[in-house]
């Protein structure tokens, strides 16, 4: 599991190290080690912290909050809603790309790999960073949520003018961790078909709104 930490961008370590030293996180690591030893789990061990690999603390200007990694083979690689190159796009990601097309007239992409967003300062953060294969939610309530809640609080406390995109009921609850006086929060239904088909996703224009807010704050917009 040492590789798990090695990939984290150095800029995060002063903020995260204190969490790594807490008893709950030590228990979490023991659980994750056991799960990866005895079961097929995702993402691969060295990609668990990928959100913090491709998006440095200094560069973070947008935060998208997911819930669980994808639990199908080859899908998850440590960035919420993202899949590896060559993998079929899950339904939520399909609807994200459709909204971007409608909002910004950016053609639907071939690849569902969102590393290109992360490299521009979009933190693609799942609340739970690991999952057992084909068992959605299997690693929830083991400590990951405590860790990722702390990440959100650190960003809220230490930065300003970050755009938080809260999609769906689960993500919307995270607003309690965010100082809305110094950050921007955009709420919407979840991009999953269940929500999107009921009219709670399409037309939210979160991608153009995010870029407008970033430009208002003197920051470079995201090339979605």
TrEMBL record:
<dbReference type="InterPro" id="IPR005122">
    <property type="entry name" value="Uracil-DNA_glycosylase-like"/>
</dbReference>
<comment type="function">
    <text>Excises uracil residues from the DNA which can arise as a result of misincorporation of dUMP residues by DNA polymerase or due to deamination of cytosine.</text>
</comment>
<dbReference type="InterPro" id="IPR036895">
    <property type="entry name" value="Uracil-DNA_glycosylase-like_sf"/>
</dbReference>
<keyword id="KW-0227">DNA damage</keyword>
<protein>
    <recommendedName>
        <fullName>Uracil-DNA glycosylase</fullName>
        <ecNumber>3.2.2.27</ecNumber>
    </recommendedName>
</protein>
<keyword id="KW-0378">Hydrolase</keyword>
<keyword id="KW-0963">Cytoplasm</keyword>
<feature type="domain" description="Uracil-DNA glycosylase-like">
    <location>
        <begin position="53"/>
        <end position="214"/>
    </location>
</feature>
<keyword id="KW-0234">DNA repair</keyword>
<comment type="similarity">
    <text>Belongs to the uracil-DNA glycosylase (UDG) superfamily. UNG family.</text>
</comment>
<dbReference type="InterPro" id="IPR018085">
    <property type="entry name" value="Ura-DNA_Glyclase_AS"/>
</dbReference>
<feature type="active site" description="Proton acceptor">
    <location>
        <position position="68"/>
    </location>
</feature>
<dbReference type="InterPro" id="IPR002043">
    <property type="entry name" value="UDG_fam1"/>
</dbReference>
<dbReference type="Pfam" id="PF03167">
    <property type="entry name" value="UDG"/>
</dbReference>
